[in-house]
Structure formats: C-alpha cells, structure tokens
Amino acid sequence: MIWAIVLLPLLGALIAWFIPDNRKRPFVLPVFGVLHLAMTVALLVSTPPASPNGWIYLDSLGKLTLLCNSVLFLVCSAYAVGYLSYRRRRNNRILCMALLDCLAAMTLVTMSQHLGLLWIALEATTLAMAPLVYFNRNARSIEATWKYLLICSVGIAIALLGLFFLAYSTIVANQEVSLLLGSLISDASRLHAGWRHAAFIFLLVGFGSKMGLAPLHTWKPDAYGEAPGLVGALLAGGLVNCALLALLRVYQIAVASTEGALFQDVLLAMGLVSMAFAAVFMARQSDFKRMLAYSSVEHVGIIAVALGLGKGALFGALLHMINNAMTKGVLFLSSGNIHRAYNSKSTQFVRGAIKRAPWSGALFLAAFLAITGSPPFAPFVSEFMIVSSAFVQGNHWTGGLFLLFLAMIFIGMASTVLPLVMGKTPEGMEKTPYRDTVATVLPPLMLMGVVLVLGVWIPTPLQALLQDAAGLLGGGR
Amino acid sequence: MNSLADQLLVLCLLINFAVLGTSRLAFSVRAVAVQGVLLGVLPALVHPFSWHLAMIVVSIIAVKGAVIPILIIRAVKKAEIQREFEPFIGYIPSLVLGAIFTSVAFIFAAKLPLAPEHEGLLFVPASLATLMCGFLVLMGRRKAISQVIGYLLMENGIFIFGLLLAEAMPVMVEAGALLDLLVGVFVMGIVINHISREFSTLDTSKLSTLREG
After folding, report:
1. Computed from CA positions of residues A187, B180, B209, A346, in that sequence, does the dihedral angle turn out positive or negative?
2. Distance from B151 to chain A by nearest Cα, in Å?
3. Is residue B213 less than 8 Å (CB to CB) from chain A?
4. What is the pLDDT of residues A221-254, one digit of tens each?
5. Are A146 and B112 a contacting pair at CB < 8 A?
6. Interface size, chain A vs chain B, as Cβ–Cβ contacts under 8 Å
7. Do A139 and B199 touch (CB under 8 A)?
8. Are A219 and A151 contacting, i.e. CB atoms less than 8 angstroms apart?
9. Cβ atoms within 10 A of the Cβ of B197, count?
10. Do B187 and A127 touch (CB under 8 A)?
11. How many CA atoms lie less than 13 Å away from A70 in the CB half-sphere?
C-alpha cells in the first residue's frame, strides 16, 4: 500500500507517455491527482507500520507534507487541463510526465525515514522540475533553468556531504553506522561533536539553498518568473515544503543533540535575513511573477524564524507551511491566468486585470491580502502565532523586526498588486484569446476557499496532526 | 595497501590542478574521468573484499569513468567549442587559489578526528580540496560545459569522502546517488544543447537578461 502511492504517479507518467494526442493527454493529470489524494487520505486514516528495515514510515511531519502536496497537486493538475488548452501548439508530453514524476519523488520524500533515501528523492524532485521550468522554450526560460539546475544541484550535493559527515560521526563515536532518523535522534548527543557540527552546517547550506533561504535564494526569482503558473505553484508550495521537511529532519536531530540552541540561532538569523531581502527587493518589481518569488523567500524566512524561536512557535511554523503552500498556489495560478490574458508579465502593461479577467484579478487580490497576513485568511493566524510566541519568549528584537519586515513587504507588494488589479488598462493593449473559464478559475477558487476556511477554523484531525508534528520537532519521539 | 591509497589520493589532488590550469575542455573532461576511475579503485584498497564492494567499484568506474565523460564529450563536439575563453578567474589565479584551498582543507581536516581504521589516510583533506577546487571551476569559468566540469569535480570530492563509508552505506543509497548524478548530467547536457542553439554560444555570462535592477 505504502509503496503503491509512490508507484502510482510513475504509472501515470508511463500512461502519459503512450497517449499520442496532445488534447487528451492532460486529462491523465487530474485522474492521477484524485487517485493520489484518495490514497493519501487512506494512509492518513490508517497509518501502516514501518517497513521492516525502518526506511519507510509516515510520521506526522511526513503526513502533513504529504497531505499538503497531494491537495496542491490535485488543484494544479485540474488547472493544467484548462491551461494547456490555451497552449495547444506546445507539445505537453514532457510536461505531463515530469509533473507526475515529480509527484512520485515528492511522495517518497515525505515517507523516507532514511536520510540517504530522503536525499535521493529530493534530488529527483529537483531534476524532474527542470524540464517544467523550461516549458516556454525561449532564451529567458533556458537561462532560468540553467541557474536553477546548477544552484540546486550544487546545494543538494553539499547536503550529501553533510549527510556523509553525519554518518561518519556515528563511526567515530564507535557506533553502528546509520542514517536512520530514529537511531540518529536517540544517539544524537553521543555523536562526535566536531563531525556533527560540520554536518549541520553543510546540511543547512544544502537544504537551505533548495528551500531558497537568503542568501542562497538567487535562483528563485528567475525560475519562478519564467516557469508557467502551475509549475510556479508546485515549486513554491510542493518543492519548498519537501526541502523544508528535509531541514526539519535535521532540526529533529539537532534539537536532540546538545547543539539545538546554536542551530536555532542560525535559522533565526537566516530567516530574518530572508525577510529583509524580500522586503527590499519586493518593492518596485517590474515583473509580477518575480515579485511572487520574493514573497516565497519571505515566507520560507518566516518559517525559519519560527523554527529558530522553537517552543510555541513550532505549531505556527507547521501551520504556516500549509498556509503558505495553499496561498502561493492561488497566487501563482491566478497570476498565470493574468499572464495569459495580457501576454505579458510586466507591471508596466498589465493593469486593470479586474476588467480583463475579473475572476483571476479578484483571486489575485484576495490571495495578496492573504499572503501579506490580513485577517480572516489563514496566514494571518500562523503569523500571529509566531510573532506572539516571539514576544512571549521575551525576544522583542525578533518580534519587532518581524513586524517591521511584514509591514514593509505589505507596502511593497501593494504598490505592485493594486495598480495591477485595479488600475486602468493602457490604451492599445493587444487582445488575447484568454477568457476566465471554469477550468482555469475553479481550481484556484477552491484553494482560496481552503485558505479562508483554515483562517477561521482548523478541523480537529488537522489540529491533532499539527500538534503531534510540533511535538516531534520539540524533541518528542 | 594504505600507502597506495594515499598515493592515489595525491594523484586526485594533482588532477584538480590540471583542471584548474587548462583551457581545453576535452582535456578537463578526460582528467575528471581519470579521477572518477581512481575513485572507483580506491575502495578496493581500503576495504576488505565483498560483493557489495565489487558492485560499487564497477558502477563508479562505469558511470564516472565512461558514461558521464561520453555524454559531455558529445556535448562539446555538438557545440563545436574546444576551449574556455576569458574566464572570470584566470588560470594562474585559479591555480594559486586552488593551492590555498588545498592547504586550508588540510588544516581543517586536521581538526576532525578519523575512526581508528582510517587513521593517517588523506581521504578528508583530498575530499574537501577537490570539493573546493570544483567550486572554483564552477564560479570562475564562463562556458556552461566548464561549469558542468566544476560540478563533477565537486561531486568527485564528495564521493571521495563517501568512500570511507563505502562498506557501511546500503547499496541502494549509493546506486541512487549515482543514478541522480547521471540523470543530472544528462539533463544538463540537454540544457547545454539548447543554450547553444538559443544563444549560438555557450557563454553563460550572456545569460544575463534576468539580472536584478
């Protein structure tokens, strides 16, 4: 059963390969999206026992990520059908296959308890995404793909060295060598300190660059800006969460060792730097998709700050991981629609989207309000938890800077988004065939519904799952 | 046996300098391939024989020594370029920096203790030095192919360290890591091909439309 959920999307990729018709092929995506979500729910309800060698097990952190990825993928796959009908002339075979391969790899990430396996799956997500970033096949997208591929590959290679260091620290400590999460956590304080220290640094740099924490974020604006909207949504929601999960595994080991406090301080600093970078670069962006990339840098920063604070903020961090993924989904999908409606993503030309594409414009505006932390949307709740935890812990500087950056980002983003949605369309803009249809609007609309509901009410099972996962991060077993 | 292993590691370090000091792409690719073969031989010298080990040796030599170099050489031929041109960091500065990095690697490695069975081996400094030299090539060169060579050098550095764990690591992890590397280089090869078609050059400093500001 548990292997079936990894193999299922691969089967889908195989089927997509064999379908010759460019129009019918995209329908494979939602079919497998639904099947994947159904299996995910089944796995969440009845957790299968760990595999005999302990490599595969779905703990509550993995469950959260899996659920989040599965929902996001279903929405994106439903959207893909409508989106690809506007891009008929472009062959979508590779797109469909890469999307499903990426889903398989993302699923494997969520249930790996062996860090080596986790690394392999994470690298596979990076590679599966590369052809997706290059979907538009022009000079700009190849530049973005090259940067993405090189920086992420190098980053993740450094993480591999970190893993080797971690494994070697168990040898030096005269223990059986192991990269199983459970045994690493229980032996964390007995591992050799020097090697362990070096391992944490390399792992933080490696997974941090894949997550896009500043100053390792430089590939993000390019890749997010040039990739199609639905790929951007999966990058900002799915891939970021997979890299975050890898970082959380390291976090679990760090907290169990004596170096927890140092690791948290570094995360806190990197988080604040990410928010500062985003606040500076967000203002006056001339490309609205690149602006969304800086928003992604901001939100991984927020999560890193919350992890750095620890204690009460951990629940907020995990909730924010979900909220960010869902809201980014809405932002990228609706921005993809707006991009189609204007055939441009320069804020100089794209104005008054509410008239040209009323639903997409309204969704973009609502998601902007949500992502900047306005009530009653879900990110408000998680950001409030994090910042109040900072003040409760007496960490006034962090709390103050956090609020300052949020305010700067709100202003910076509003100065781009408001004219884009509400402004007056420039004279003589070319007409495009794009009109808001059910196929391209309903998926992000549903996702926006989720963001709104999570803002006012967290279902009890999700609440329990979040608490359980936060307990794992707090040092519980 | 261990002294032979150390000699091979020194050879790996020398290959780093050969790559740092040359502008000829085909030569660099071959040098990295030779390094890959050395990497394949090394575990046989430090660990006692087992079938698991034999598989590692064969697959590393096949992937790093043959498949990947062939992929890159093909990309070099297709793009019809032979040399790196006006690198960001010149060849002499590269060599000097490489020497500095190598000595830093030795100092750093001295602070980290080895397990008793690996005492006195050069694995850690060789690994770190190769990693940093690879990074230097990656950052200092313009051509996309040079950057891939830098990436491979980095990967070799990481693998040198991984060899210490060759016995302890499960086969699946090693196979997976090699496979990821292979697919990665394959994808990079395709991208290189598209870069040369799109820009009719492989100069990555031409890839600058997406600069900030």
Report:
1. negative
2. 7
3. no
4. 999 989 998 999 999 999 999 999 999 999 999 9
5. no
6. 122
7. yes
8. yes
9. 11
10. yes
11. 27
Report residue B143: phi and psi, to 5°: -70, 140
Radius of gyration (Cα) for chain A, nearest Å? 21
Question: What pLDDT, in 10s, does the model give residues A313-361?
Answer: 999 999 999 999 999 999 999 999 999 888 888 888 888 888 888 999 9
Question: What pTM was computed for the model?
Answer: 0.93
Handedness of CA A35, A450, A235, A265 (dihedral sign): negative
**Both tokens assigned to A399:** 């709390």
Shortest Cα distance from B150 to chain A (angstroms)? 10
DSSP label at residue A212: T
Cβ proximity of B153 and B94 under 8 Å: no
Distance, CA of A211 to CA of A152 (rounded, Å) = 9
Q: pLDDT tens across A92-143, in order?
A: 889 999 999 999 999 999 999 999 999 999 999 999 999 999 888 888 888 8
H helices of A85-138, in order, are 93-111, 115-133
- Report the distance separating Cα A122 and Cα A114, nearest Å: 12
Q: How many CA atoms lie within 13 A of A77 on its CB side?
A: 29
Is the separation of the CB atoms in A357 and A434 below 8 Å? Answer: yes
Q: Is B111 on the interface with A (CB under 8 A)?
A: yes
**CA of A216 vs chain B CAs: smallest distance (Å):** 15
Peptide bond into A459 cis (omega under 30): no
User: How far apart are the C-alpha atoms of B122 and B138, rounded to whole Å?
Assistant: 24
Cα–Cα distance, B72 to B66 (Å, whole number): 10
Per-residue pLDDT for B213 more than 60? no
pLDDT in tens, A204-224: 999 999 999 988 888 999 999
Residue A207 phi, psi dihedral angles, 5° rounding: -70, -30
Distance between CA atoms of A460 and A466, rounded to whole angstroms?
Answer: 10
CA-to-CA distance for A306 and A213, rounded, in angstroms?
14
In this prediction the ipTM stands at 0.91
In single-letter form, the type of residue at position A374 comes to: S
Please state the separation of Cα B19 from the chain's center in Å: 10
- Nearest-10 Cα torsion for A297, A298, A300, A305: 140
